[in-house]
Amino acid sequence: MKCVEPMAPKAKAVSIEPAGATIRYGRVVASYACDGAASRGRFIAEAACPTRSPFQRDRDRIVHSTAFRRLTHKTQVFIAHEADHYRTRLTHTLEVAQVARAMARQLCLDEDLAEAIALAHDLGHPPFGHAGERALDNHTARFGGFDHNAQSLRVVTELEHKYAGFDGLNLSWETLEGLVKHNGPLLKAADAATEALPWAIAEFNKRLDLELADHASAEAQVAALADEIAYSNHDLDDAFRAELITVDMLRDVPLTEELLNDVSVTYGDLSGARMIYEVNRRLITAMISDAVCEARRRLGVHEVRKADDIRHAGEPIIAFSKSMQERVEELGRFLFEAVYRHERVMRVMRNAEQVVGELFEHYLADRKSLPGAWAEPSVQCDDVVAVRHITDFVAGMTDRYALQEHRRLFDATPDLR
Ligand code: MG
């Protein structure tokens, strides 16, 4: 019997090419997209690659980095060893990159730059997600604290040791700018005091001015919103899998209630897992469509012609509409109460925080106990440098390596389940 696929309703073809768009590296790009050929370059000058744009090359360096592979064994929200299907920091990162590419293509931006920033955005995350970050921030408070975003910059500018000519990955200015400012400007004005900045960003900015008072490129803003779209959706899915939420609970959240009704009209009563997935796929599409529409509106309002117009627009260009923003915030409040502050999640995170804190204090008190090549430099340096060195080591750990080290060094290790 011949299988006939049902016909999709005919969509009206809409041109997405903005005025002034050109073809670059085989893709349609807007005049306000970042252009690799006009890049502000790398800190250490390098000859151009014959087969890739500078942003493609950045993306490839990120994928080949050691820190990227470590994301496999780092927690997103749920400790990965509890079950096989929870998102890890790596699968979260891949979902962010996928959403970022979809939005970048719709808006005729440089997809490779958006993807590179998305793939690098969580490279500095310590083990056990925000619990690990809180522990490191508390234990290093006297020395300037810890911030995962600043740590991502350290990873790509200092901590990868693969290339003969430089430490780090020697990424383009636009990728570094996007990594540091993807959540908005870090300074109120160009001449503002930099004391409030995370120390790693303040120090790097003295070497290479990332124009911290301006917004980042549209590609970086796409990566930032893609992060929110990805985690809002996959945290719902993971929380359902962890039995922290039910389909009925989603009927109290306006954004998901609409979509549940939509799925029920089409398919009737579905089993919970399929229902959540059908809601998720509709929710991702709704969020992306809304953001793309709103971005086109803002591009028009600000009469954006070139990439720097976006940096100086005074507000983000890539954003949800006001009504979607309100509904996304309601969804965020629901996730916060039902998932992130759930006692089952909190208990594991408190234990994780203890593990990371105790590791840090142990290495600080006995620097020679750092393994291998990490031990020697920390013994000879002053306290500030030693703290930074130990922070780099602990932040780079995967969840399982942190637990393994804790078991090696302590009599009792909390059960993270
Ligand atoms: Mg993220």
Please tell me about this protein's structure:
With 417 residues, the protein is mainly alpha-helical. It has 2 domains: 1-351, Orthogonal Bundle (Hypothetical protein af1432), CATH 1.10.3210; 352-409, no CATH class. It has 17 helices and 2 strands. It has helices at 54-63, 66-70, 89-106, 111-120, 129-139, 148-159, 173-181, 199-207, 218-241, 254-267, 272-301, 307-311, 322-340, 343-365, 375-380, 383-396, 399-409, and strands spanning 22-24, 27-29. It has a two-stranded antiparallel sheet. Helix 1 runs parallel beside helix 4 (111-120). Magnesium ion is lined by residues 92, 96, 121-122, 227.
Q: What overall geometry do the principal axes of the alpha carbons give?
A: globular
Q: What is the string of SSEs from the N terminus onward?
A: EEHHHHHHHHHHHHHHHHH
Q: From the coordinates shown, what is the CATH architecture of the largest domain?
A: Orthogonal Bundle
Amino- and carboxy-terminal Cα gap: 51 Å
What helical percentage do the residues reach?
Answer: 55-70%
Total helical elements: 17
Q: Widest sheet: strand order?
A: 1-2
Strand content: under 5%
Give the overall average pLDDT: 91
Which CATH C-level class of the largest domain is it?
Mainly Alpha
Structurally, the number of domains stands at 2
The description of the largest β-sheet is: 2 strands, antiparallel
CATH topology of the largest domain, by name, is Hypothetical protein af1432
